[in-house]
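Action item from last week, closing it out:
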Amino acid sequence: MAFEAELALAHRLADAAREAIRPLFRTGIGSERKGDRTPVTEADRAAEQAMRRLIEAEFPRDAVHGEEFGATAGNSGRTWVLDPIDGTTAFMAGRPIFGTLIALVEEGWPVLGVIDQPILGERWVGLTGTPTTFNGTQVRTRPCPSLSEAALATTGPHYFDDHDGEHFMALAAKTDHKRMVMGGDCYNYAMLAMGQLDVVCEANLKLHDYAALIPVVEGAGGVMCDWNGDPLHAASSGHVLALGDPARVEDVVEALACGGH
């Protein structure tokens, strides 16, 4: 199987992050504010350091791009993209809906992705050309016959600026807003891959926020794209859509475009 060694390493990375994070969950550990005002904890840093050590030992030529410790250059054309705790706010609130994100990006395109929830022991694995698995069992997105029936999720309206927020609300107005989900970070994409949600819409995401999600969602039969419907890659703007049913892409892009008019 292609990427066999890389996949085995990705599992070990997720295991190492779990070991770093679990003892600190619901312990009341403090946090600091980074330059962008987002919180960071000892758990974020310990988990990323543990993963970096394993990558450097096993694939020393690969670059590493992590949320907490930045970019380390490589010369293989490949980059491991790490977000040790996607959803630090949820972690700090004692809510087990955050996740560790691990991606392998080749020439700008994510080919392997892991979403790991260390407290619940849940792991989704996506690999180009193979079906997505949840704890070893294949999962699929669900069909969505119309946008008006879609369950929409986003981490929170306060993550949109006024302009993006208007576009998001235009989309929300065309979905089933009695089923809208707020909060969740990467966990929403995992739920979409399992057929529990239909659309996730976010803005201002960084590569470490979305790279791992793409193989997971697409290997489950869904699609990820930007707000124009174009495929996501390392240089994308951070306007991110995930859809369980690819047939709804045009509807969602059209609804977003109506915002602010």
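Closing note: The radius of gyration is 17 Å.
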